[in-house]
Amino acid sequence: MILTKNNCDRNLLIESATKIEAECFSDSWSARSVEGQLMADGSVFFCSADEKGNITGYVCGQILADECELYRIAVTGKYRGKGYAKELMTRFIEECRDNDVSGIFLEVRSSNTPARTLYEKYGFQNVGVRKNYYSAPTDDAIIYRCDI
Ligand SMILES: CC(C)(COP(=O)(O)OP(=O)(O)OC[C@H]1O[C@@H](n2cnc3c(N)ncnc32)[C@H](O)[C@@H]1OP(=O)(O)O)[C@@H](O)C(=O)NCCC(=O)NCCS
Q: Against a cut of 0.90, is the pTM above it?
């Protein structure tokens, strides 16, 4: 099940995504940043939920003209490997298509095999590298792009 600003309480989306941020990212966003992202013009923001309504993951990005940057996709530990990221990614791409986006791009740590495998499964191609872009630990950023 996909939850959006239109079918779910905004505070629940913000609270859930903030918890997932804290669990999944060393540079996690605050509730205020998550809220800013949810409310921004061109924002693409969805949570996934299980059949009982428990929030399992979230994705967010930003449409700018005919391109979209995917900023985050994350699934909370106990729900990984159950297809929630695929559900989120499919909905994200659908929303981009509905808004006449022609390409999605993103950056990811080179060591992040689960995320890179997910992106490649959806047709994202490695179009560049930013050497030592990430710190703690130091890592290259791989730039991916997908024409949709
Ligand atoms: C990347 C992440 C979102 C995947 O979520 P998930 O719900 O477990 O993924 P799914 O079950 O939907 O699997 C989707 C695909 O991702 C890939 N994948 C997922 N976990 C993987 C793993 N441990 N190793 C390799 N590939 C993996 C596979 O291609 C998989 O498809 P398949 O099951 O048909 O082979 C999750 O591992 C996560 O939250 N990681 C931490 C946050 C993060 O690093 N986000 C990316 C940067 S913003």
A: yes
Q: Mind listing the pLDDT tens digit for each residue in 68-88? A: 999 999 999 999 999 999 999
Per-residue pLDDT of 8-54, as tens digits, reads 999 999 999 999 999 999 889 999 999 999 999 999 999 999 999 99
Strand partners, 57: 48, 75
Report the alpha-carbon distance of residue 56 to residue 77 in Å, rounded. 9
Q: Which domain holds residue 63?
A: 2-147
CATH number of the domain within which 49 lies: 3.40.630.30
Domains held by the chain: number: 1
Site to substitute for ligand 1 among 91, 117, 121, most atoms within 8 A of C-beta:
117
**What atom in ligand 1 is closest to the CA of residue 86?**
12
**Is the CB of 142 within 6 Å of ligand 1?**
no
